[in-house]
Design brief:
The chain is an alpha/beta fold. 34% of the residues lie in helices and 13% in strands. The protein is globular and about 50 Å long.
């Protein structure tokens, strides 16, 4: 099986870290459970200049390396790999974040996963003229049987795979999202994801 896994808020707790960062940088206290929008400028009520500074800070290597692992992520992913499944981490982070992201994976025992930086959210990002290691035309040539993703904005990248089973990692910003087909399953933790994938494989 070929499995797509998103990075932020699927295998690491990025939004929880950003919640603390918003307090540190702007004295804006928005608890994790109150992050109701995937667009963090909206969730944290940041203007364009503040949002750019916020995202640049959140993607500094030392900050990226500090993100906590989502409980169970590396354990389940390594189980899949040990069973012969191919796991690819497809992140919307720009390629400038590749090295610390790769180090984070290695440090958390995920040396055997591939990492790709895909332009999921548009090139006009907080890092101007961002580079990405995976272009959309090449991504669309890839095939996956399962996906683990938290962002409704990324679901459009699955439309070309009608049989793909998508595990929607439950997060505050996607709870109002209506799952678009029976192939989409809401999952609440990595044990839930493990069990659902196992059901499909059986």
């Amino acid at each position: 099986m070929k499995i797509y896994v998103d990075f932020d808020d699927c295998i690491c707790e990025t939004a929880r870290a950003f919640s603390m960062l918003a307090v540190e940088m702007f004295n804006k206290n928005v608890p994790y459970e109150a992050i109701n929008f995937f667009d963090l400028d909206k969730s944290f009520d940041l203007n364009e200049e503040e949002f750019e500074r916020f995202m640049l800070r959140g993607h500094q290597p030392e900050v990226l390396l500090s993100y906590e692992e989502t409980p169970g992520a590396s354990e389940v992913i390594n189980e899949w790999i040990s069973c012969g499944h191919q796991v690819s981490i497809i992140t919307g982070r720009p390629f400038s974040a590749y090295e610390p992201s790769r180090k984070w994976l290695d440090d958390h025992g995920l040396k055997d996963v591939s990492l790709y930086c895909l332009n999921k959210y548009g090139r006009d990002s907080f890092i101007k003229d961002s580079d990405f290691s995976l272009e959309l035309e090449d991504y669309y040539k890839m095939e996956f049987d399962f996906a683990v993703e938290d962002s409704p904005k990324a679901f459009k990248f699955f439309d070309h795979l009608p049989d793909l089973k998508v595990m929607v990692f439950d997060r505050p910003w996607n709870r109002k999202y209506e799952l678009k087909s029976p192939n989409y399953t809401r999952c609440f933790d990595w044990n839930n994801i493990r069990n659902k994938v196992a059901e499909f494989i059986r």
